[in-house]
Amino acid sequence: APGQAEMYAGLQELGVANGEDLKETLTNCTEPLKAIEQFQTENGVLLPSLQYALPFLDLHGTPRLEFHQSVFDELREKLLERVSAIALEGKVEERYKKLEDLLEKSFSLVKMPSIQPVVMCVMKHLPKVPEKKLKLVMADKDLYKACAVEVKRQIWQDNQALFGDEVSPLLKQYILEKENILFSNDISFLQNFFSPSPKTRRQGEVVQKLTQMIGKNVKLYDMVLQFLRTLFLRTRNVHYCTLRAELLMSLHDLEISDICTVDPCHKFTWCLDACIREKFVDNKRARELQGFLDGVKKGQEQVLGDLSMILCDPFAINTLALSTIRHLQDLVGQDTLPRESPDLLLLLRMLSLGQGAWDMIDSQVFKEPKMEAELITRFLPLLMSFVVDDHTFTVDQKLPSEEKGPIPYPSTIPEAFTKFLQENRIACEIGLYYILHITKQRNKNAFLRLLPALVETFSDLAFSDIFLHLLTGNLTLLSDEFALEEFCTSLFDGFFLTACSRKENVHRHVLRLLLHLHHKVAPAKLESLQKALEPTKQSGEAVKELYNQLSEKLELRKPSPAEVTETPSMELPLPTVPTPASR
């Protein structure tokens, strides 16, 4: 049987008798019992004292197989311990010479399941397994699967395609995990996509597996970065940028200096990581980050491509944008213009570098994007004027009202604001974060005023998953407003429904929101929304599933017949009972 052959694989090459030899001996002999006894003597454990002990075990009914198996297991454990010890003792050349000799002697038994762990252990402790042996392992699927990651690294570093096959499913899993969080049915302003700390995120399965696969191997680390760059270029998916930063910081946590010292982004990423942890860029760290950017020397501009990818990580963008909004509010209180704040200008510089990552890597032109003066001289003061409008309105409300009546909240949006959101990427990003900020403050007036500007934004950023995930979470703070027709019409008809039919992700986010807040929406509005959100034939499974969940919830909310005061007409026709004939 093939299984039997595997069991004895390689013994003959070492001159050790195996099952086949016994079979041959028994086939060609006249006295089988004597032949068996002779085979046992020749191949048994050559220990004189055993001659008397074995019959004693026979008397206890212990099979010889069981005895030999336990001796074998014990010896194998001792050998494994010895191999691990050799790998640590004596001079480097000597220890590896011993292991190489051992590998040479034992490699022919590598397919023998009982000996395989020893051969694998020897290879694991060799920093350079002979090329020939690596090729044999690589060519055999089962051997490749069984060998330690230390050996696989040696195979991978010269076989990019094979390494790519190993890494690819992990990268797919990573992207899927991120999307599952963005589309999660749990909607809350307290817990969102950006809640987990960087340290917690790095404990994720994919980052840990990749970290282990790379070990201290700079070549493999470079390969993973190359995969991430290529996938980012191909898909524009910013989660690959997150993984780029998480992987570097995971190696940093393990103090893998072989890699950290050669990655030119290491110190910048480390500093930015601390800002992301605090969700704010303080003055001290701002100076450090600026030092790194200003320190990019002539001829080393290519590092900007990597730095831009680190800054394009949504967690970095989130931190920079939140810090920008906070700075703008402080400037209002200090009567200072944006152009007079170096800290604010640095935040914009980093936002600009992050948002320009794809273009830079695609064009291979490594220079910082030019900042548009109007962003600083017109757009940011415009945002500050909105903050002032809010302060003014709040103060007006507190003043004793005279005959002229209460001053209404400004309802128009300056045309320039809408134009900036459509044409300038950085302005759009900051504008969206300002809208998230006012929603979190439960500022319904400001929210309804600026909402129409979101229908058309740069590259449809207002309909991106990250923004909609954050917006739906913050809208739970305005849940009581959903009972009002005007609010729902502005939010659903004026914003969400304008994109539902052309963007499946928007459809999903609206359904997520309604699943959470349907009980707050006026029944008539809910009914029209249910009709408007009905999936089409083209809709994906996720939309259909969410819609079904919503329909079930709404079905449960309908009053039961018992609650209806009028006697409902019987819906089913009564069976016709023949009336007794009047005789």
From TrEMBL:
<dbReference type="Pfam" id="PF06209">
    <property type="entry name" value="COBRA1"/>
</dbReference>
<protein>
    <submittedName>
        <fullName>NELFB factor</fullName>
    </submittedName>
</protein>
<feature type="region of interest" description="Disordered">
    <location>
        <begin position="557"/>
        <end position="583"/>
    </location>
</feature>
<dbReference type="GO" id="GO:0034244">
    <property type="term" value="P:negative regulation of transcription elongation by RNA polymerase II"/>
</dbReference>
<dbReference type="GO" id="GO:0032021">
    <property type="term" value="C:NELF complex"/>
</dbReference>
<dbReference type="InterPro" id="IPR010405">
    <property type="entry name" value="COBRA1"/>
</dbReference>
